Write the structure tokens for this entry.
Amino acid sequence: MKIFKNIVILTGAGISAESGLSTFRSENGLWNNHRVEDVATIEAFKRNPAYVHDFYNDLKKEILQAKPNAAHLAITQFQKEYPAEIAVITQNVDLLHEKAGNSNVYHIHGQIDQAVCLNCGQTVGASGDIDTETVCPNCGVIGMMKPNIVFFGENLLCMDKVDELLRRCDLFLSVGTSGVVFPAAAFVQTAKYHGAATYEFNMEPTSNNFYFDHHIMGPAGTTLPAFVEEMIRSLKSGD
Ligand code: BV8
């Protein structure tokens, strides 16, 4: 097997499913009991901030008690034992990559334990509830704090770094994402254009599976550890 130098792992809600966190678009997913337009858009937040705060305060409690699973831990082993630059670009707002010991993690859709002030733009830690009475610790204004989550219609975070990583990578793994939210769903195209080998780890083929050279079906908690073990084994045996 070729020895890779620059690896990008794109993750979605599916990598956290075996940690007990709901995904977005499965039958009992997060969006099935909420309309996305009512919750995850900047217009919804401006229209009814209390409703959006309640949704994320509840989600935060569930997310912060979750534990990383074998898929997250396999990435830590990969980063420790395989001699490549391995970056994680996650759409997830949970912190399971960090809890598992992953480094080089980029939260392009934000993260649940932070808030951003719409008055001064400062991003601050927010492990507790935030609401329309929360005071910005930086500028002191009340009621302008928003979860540091990228809503639909908002630009993604870390995109300069992401563009650089995608142009340089020679191996692109997509783990547990349905490939329907852009621009993350197009990252595989950029990686492929620049010559990367592309793998999709999912329970089923996804809507952008055309761009993947390899499809590894099954729960990521099983398939990703097996893939990492094989990559390390073939490195050591030189085959
Ligand atoms: C933007 C925050 C510029 C809330 C989220 C065409 C081109 C470009 C943009 C667009 C376009 N058309 C529309 C747009 C705009 C929009 C978009 O993509 N809409 C979609 C619905 C068509 N994109 C945006 O607005 C983005 N911003 O483009 O900025 C701009 C600026 C101004 C005006 C216009 C454009 C912002 C996107 C971010 C939105 N925020 N979340 C929150 O997280 O609470 S998106 C939301 O979906 C989450 O972040 C989530 O991460 C993301 C993707 O979902 P997945 O992670 O893939 O989860 P899902 O449930 O869908 O799938 C889980 C998968 O796992 C499944 O495939 C399942 O089979 C698999 N699975 C399950 N269990 C396992 C498993 N796999 C392995 N093992 C298991 N055990």
